[in-house]
Specification:
By secondary structure, the protein is α+β, with helices and mostly antiparallel strands. The chain is built from seven helices and seven strands. Strand 4 and strand 5 form a beta hairpin. The longest helix has 26 residues. The protein is elongated and about 100 Å long.
Amino acid sequence: MTQAPNSSSRSRDRRRLLAIALILAMVSALWLARDHWWPLAVSSNPYEATPAENFPVGADGIAPPAATPVDGMSADAVAAALDQVRQALIGAYLDPRMLVQHDPEPVLNLLAPDSADTVRPRFANAGYGTTLIRLAPGTTLAAPPRVSGQLGFQRVDWNGMPALDVTSNYVFAYAFGHPSGVVVIHSETHWMFPLSTSLRPSSRGMYLGRTSGYWHGMDCASASRGLTAPAPPIDRGANPAYRDPEPLDAYFDPNRPVGITSGCR
């Protein structure tokens, strides 16, 4: 003799059927959208689905413009200055000696001695966080940095003397493997070449001039110490009331202004 199912068992059966229907609907939706998520699931490219996916790799992204003469400098002299700035950018943002060992000397050696003497103590005091890049200890990169931006140059009046101003405006993207995450650094820097003929020997050469920039996707506590690391799941150095006014992709754009509101305390 069989027993008729009571209302409680019928309710359980309905819940099971509903759960199965929901699971089947989710699986069907994922399958139909597989062209969007499957490449991300199997990709070994940590920049996948970010604008940096299409950026040149490393130093390939730092391409000087064609040099032309300016008042007081030949085209060859301008080309030499542009190449010197390119080497400084490679040393400041891509060279493991800077990134991992936190050794600024390869960059400082490219500067006029007077400029190097100014930069060195500021760097030692956690300055130039978005200009001379130091990865936080314990972090590792999952892939070479990606780079997008441009160099420009013009003759200017600088501190009462003529100078060549080579302006670098670049976005550098760093994909971390441990801990994981992509950090964006956008920096605009004026590299100055004074043209006065009356300079003392220690004042001749390239100067690290005005610089500004921002991090995005970074660990706030590390950034406050001039170090670069990806944001943790819960960033205790971040302002909990901050609401990002920009979409993520905006921070990868070298044409956006470098002055932004910080989400860190």
